[in-house]
Amino acid sequence: MTTSVAPVVACRHVSRTFGRGPAAVVAVHDVTAHVFPGQRIALMGESGSGKSTLLHLLGGLDAPTTGEVSWPGLVTRARRPAGVGVVFQAPSLLPALDVADNVALPLLLADLPPVEARRRAEAALERLDMGGLAGAAPDELSGGQAQRVAIARVLAGEPALVLADEPTGQLDRRTAAHVLDVLLEAVGTLGAALVVSTHDPEVAGRLGDRWSMTDGRLLEAMAGRGVR
Asked: How far is CA 158 from CA 77, 82, 95, 161, 170, in A?
C-alpha cells in the first residue's frame, strides 16, 4: 500500500544488540516498518520476542545498534522526537506526588507554565474518569486506576504517537477492557497513532493492524499497513 502521508515514525533496517562477543543478544533484528498518523497497531509476540525494545526504538528512548529510526511527521530536538507518549507496563507513578501532580510533571519539565500544566493534567484525568482522585496519593489507587493515571499523564502532553507496552498485562479482564476503552477513545480524540505491545489476542482484536515479533524479527506475513 502506498500513501502520500508522511509516517509519524519510520525504521529502516534497524537492529538492537545488547552486550558484546559471545554474550551478545540481538533483541531486534533488521526491522523496516512505518507507523502512520491515526494508525492502530497491535505488536504481538511472546515475552522476550523484542516487543519492548522495538517500542523503545520507535519512541527514541533507545538508539539502534545499526539502521536508522526517523520521525518524518514529528518535530525532533537533539535527535529526539517531540510528541511521543509512552505508557509503560507498570504505571511508574512518583509516590511523593499526588495524582494531578504526577500527570502535570512531564509538562512542567517541558517548561509549560504551571497553570497550563495543571489545567491540562486535570482535563486528562477527567477524560479518563479520574478527576475525583486528582488529590489522591498513588498508593491509594487500585492497579486499574494507577494505569489510567499513567495514560492521563501521556495524553496530557497531546502526543501524535502513543506507545503502550503491555498496558493491560497486569490487570484483570474487566479492568483491562476499560483501560483499553479509554485509551482508544483518547487517542481517537487526539488523532494520534497508537502502537500497543501485547500477547493478548483480545487486545489485538481491538486494533486495526497486527504486527508479530518472533526472536527479534518483525514478521511481514502477519503485518498490516505500515510494514514495508
From this structure: 17, 10, 24, 9, 25
Burial class (CB within 10 angstroms; exposed 0-12, middle 13-18, buried 19+) of 152: buried
**Single-letter residue type at 210:** R
The number of folded domains in the chain is 1
Q: Which residue has the cell 539502534?
A: 64
66 DSSP assignment = E
Distance CA 181, CA 176 (A): 9
CATH of the domain at 121: 3.40.50.300
199-214 burial code (b ≥16 CB/10 A, e <16): bbeebbebbebbbbbe
Please give the single-letter amino acid code of residue 115.
V
> Residue 203 belongs to what domain range?
9-222
> What was the pLDDT predicted at 221?
40
Identify the pLDDT of residue 3: 54
Q: What is the pTM of this model?
A: 0.88
Q: How far is CA 113 from CA 75, 158, 211, 226, in A?
A: 21, 16, 39, 37
* pLDDT tens-digit map of 5-62: 889 999 999 999 999 888 899 999 999 999 999 999 999 988 889 999 999 999 999 9
179 near 148, Cβ under 8 Å? yes
- Measured distance CA(54)–CA(64) in Å, rounded: 9
Sites in the chain below the pLDDT cut of 50 = 1-2, 221-228
Is 1 part of any domain? Answer: no
Give Cα 106 to chain centroid, integer Å: 15
